[in-house]
Amino acid sequence: MLNLLLITASARRERSLxxxxxxxxxxxxxxxGLRVQIVERDLAATPPPLLSESHIVTFFTPDAQRSDxxxxxxxxxxxxxxxxxxxxxxxxxxxxxxxxxxxSLKAWVDQVVRIGRTFSFxxxxxxxxxxxxxxxxxxxxxxASGEFGFAxxxxxxxxxxxxxxxxxLAPYLGAKTVYHVGVEYQExxxxxxxxxxxxxxxxxxxxGQRLARAPCxxxx
Length: 220
Hints:
Layout: E1 2-8, H1 17-31, E2 36-42, H2 53-59, H3 68-73, H4 75-85, E3 89-95, H5 103-112, E4 119-121, E5 130-132, E6 137-144, H6 163-169, E7 175-183, H7 191-213
Parallel strand pairs: 1-2, 1-3, 3-6, 6-7
Antiparallel strand pairs: 4-5
Helix pairs in contact: 1-7
């Protein structure tokens, strides 16, 4: 069985290209006939809480010393982390907003990348005190951007603060392997956009089929 966590972040309910790629990816998974358990988290529909000082204090308070109010405050974070921990395959479908991730996706990241749950911290490790606690997962990133040339070596590569950010975060989500499929040229609406969209839709479907069949992403 494949345990899949699907994270969507587009503010658009209709005409969302990242949601379309997610649907194409899921159709590829379904075509394999594999038994799949899906947890879907729509961050635009239900945005995660933004970090507050109370969150930070609570994160760094030992569990045995937390008050009832602090434990209640951790409810959303614990839920998101439990969903993440149970996944073999993590799919994040998101648009690029202002060259980075939507606020709702950043809020989710801030709730799941948490000391004592998804990473440990030990100054005995010297200059690299953080160590991921989750492992064995695969991350798929499905994106849509209005401009183009964000791939390595492209004319806008240095402006991409979305995909590189997710690559950096991947170990703290438990993922060593990251796949990316993206649509570009959305705001141009020309033949380049049509070609990019068609290629990404095909690739998303094919990737869903391929990863669902891969033994390395199925339940540990």
